[in-house]
């Protein structure tokens, strides 16, 4: 009988792009090796990886990158998935929209020209955030405190993780106006396995 | 008996982000309304859309945005999908990696500072492109002229559409060095339904 090896999630010692697959594993009680590389280890390993980026997911000698793709795969295994193809489309669509907003945010923070960065940040806070968050909040209302499919799915997990990042930029005071989105985050964070993980995981800035 | 309404794909009169779902429909002989908005129509319709972006996919009174999510949904319907969950992870992973490369390209072209744009373009052509294309080419070799799962999937369609964009930037001479990637594109473009569509579709710059 072949012995199954514990799967591995490899990333840096941040929540970042690995927190979504980690959270899904914790929710579904999938045992995994939570490998956190320092910069020195990463320099050694990087040339051996598929595209020189993390996180990586390994299972039975197979390896894959891309956080969202890995998360979709794990979500299906643990039941954080849609009941039919249209529900999965709804989930995928809102996941990609949340990712779009996160990308807009990280682009502003990577801008090197300080004048442009200040101007971009103002657009982000005063235009982009309200535009997206109002619409996402309506979706959360229509789905009874979930991001899609009127039930708990990995889209809720994705939003709950991004919430902290959005609140950091737009201000917690601004975020709590979006009551249905707060509900999504609170729903996820009140799950026992998630609550435990949030207590026991390494404390990192982001 | 309820009458099924023809699904709609709404976008501008470009290939752009709508060409992947269009191509998948053409492959699978899903009849759809190919709606192409001019800027005036778009200004009217935009406030009524989920997130003010195109393409949109409509089916039986339901509507969704996000090109990749829509494409995954349609791909499953027409059999351009993996045989198991790991194959679908492979497909999703390489699709997202191809999208990453396309995003790096569009970012350079959106840069407004001409000096920075020239420098970024040099990095793109001399470092980013070779790095990604060598690795993607190896994947295509391992998958016998496909991007994943050793068979024709929607990841091949995604690459075939992006190929033209990559060749435009890196030069057709550079692209043809990646023989396995050329094979992926040629495989897709030799399918009868795709060949017909490429002949009959509106001629647009991109």
Layout of SSEs?
2 copies of one chain form a homodimer.
Chain A: E1 8-12, H1 19-27, E2 33-37, H2 39-45, E3 56-59, E4 62-65, H3 67-78, H4 85-110, H5 114-142, H6 154-170, H7 172-175, H8 179-189, H9 192-200
Parallel strand pairs in A: 1-2
Antiparallel strand pairs in A: 1-3, 3-4
Helix pairs in contact in A: 1-3, 1-6, 4-5, 4-6, 5-8, 6-8
Tell me the number of helical segments of chain A per DSSP (H or I, 4 or more residues long): 9
How many strands of chain A?
4
Question: What proportion strand of chain A?
Answer: 5-15%
SSE order of chain A in H/E notation?
EHEHEEHHHHHHH
Arithmetic mean of pLDDT of chain A: 95
- What is the overall shape of chain A? globular
**Oligomer kind:** homodimer
Distance between the termini of chain A: 42 Å
Give unreliable regions of chain A as ranges. Answer: none
Q: Indicate the CATH topology of the largest domain in chain A.
A: Glutathione S-transferase Yfyf (Class Pi), Chain A, domain 2
Based on secondary structure, the structural category of chain A is alpha+beta
The interface involving the most residues is between:
A-B, 29 and 29 residues
Main CATH class of the largest domain in chain A? Mainly Alpha
Q: Describe the sheet with the most strands of chain A.
A: 4 strands, mixed
* CA gyration radius of chain A, whole angstroms: 18 Å
Query: How are the strands of the biggest sheet of chain A laid out side by side?
Result: 2-1-3-4
Which CATH-level-2 architecture of the largest domain in chain A? Up-down Bundle
Tell me the domain tally of chain A: 2
Amount of helix of chain A: 55-70%
